[in-house]
C-alpha cells in the first residue's frame, strides 16, 4: 500500500508540474490517505504481533 501511495504522489507531482493543479492535488490527496492507512495498519499489526508474541511466550513457560 505504501508503494501505491508513492506512485500516486509521483503522478500528482508530475501533473502539478505540467499545470494540471486540480488533478495533481487530487492525486496527492489520495496519496496522503493511502499513506495514513498504511501507517495505521502497520501500528495495528505491530501491536497484534507483540501481543501474540507475549501469549506464545507465556504458553511455553
Question: What does the model show?
Answer:
It is a single chain. This protein is 92% helix and 0% strand. The protein is mostly helical and 61 residues long. The longest helix is centred in the middle third of the chain and has 40 residues, at 21-60. It is rod-shaped. The termini are far apart.
Secondary structure layout plus pairing:
Elements: H1 2-17, H2 21-60
Helix pairs in contact: 1-2
Short description:
Helices cover 92% and strands 0% of the residues. By secondary structure, it is mainly alpha-helical.
Catalogue the unreliable spans.
none
- End-to-end CA span: 37 Å
Overall pLDDT metric: 91
Q: What is the SS-derived class?
A: mainly alpha
Keywords:
92% helix, 0% strand
Amino acid at each position: 500500500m505504501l508503494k501505491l501511495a508513492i506512485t500516486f504522489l509521483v503522478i500528482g507531482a508530475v501533473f502539478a508540474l505540467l499545470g494540471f493543479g486540480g488533478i495533481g492535488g487530487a492525486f496527492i490527496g489520495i496519496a496522503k490517505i493511502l499513506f495514513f492507512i498504511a501507517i495505521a495498519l502497520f501500528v495495528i499489526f505491530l501491536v497484534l504481533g507483540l501481543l501474540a508474541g507475549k501469549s506464545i511466550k507465556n504458553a511455553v513457560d
